[in-house]
Amino acid sequence: MVGDFFIATSGQAEFWTEERCFITELHNDAASPEASLAIARVEPGVTTQLHRLDGICERYIVREGEGIVEVDGKRQHLRVGDQAVIPAGAAQRIENIGPGQLVFYCLCTPRFVPSSYVNLED
Question: What is the mean pLDDT of the chain?
């Protein structure tokens, strides 16, 4: 018998998004609505789509590379180990300014749901 605490892998592979980055979802399940965790990968020279997440606070934790994150018009340089806390509803995007991949964790509370994503470039 499997415990209520167990969530089996979904086998989700990295996928491309219209946000102009690659995402690998590590944890995003209705059984655990409190949070979700993903890895984002942005290619050199790319700036992600300006967007907001309604009702969801997001944290970026940089694993590899360097970038400039913009939150409600304020810009901050990020490198490995740096973190950005993005309040729910804040306009956000990130630019890869390094020669290699920019890779970072995306921790969302509560968990990310596609209906929360609002494209601010349209």
Answer: 95
Domain membership flag for residue 24: no
Query: Is the distance from CB of 21 to CB of 42 less than 8 angstroms?
Result: yes
Cβ proximity of 76 and 44 under 8 Å:
no
**Pairing label, strands 57-64, 102-109:** antiparallel
CATH of the domain at 106: 2.60.120.10
| Full-model pTM | 0.92
Inside any domain, residue 66: yes
Indicate whether 3 belongs to any domain. Answer: no
Amino acid at 28: N
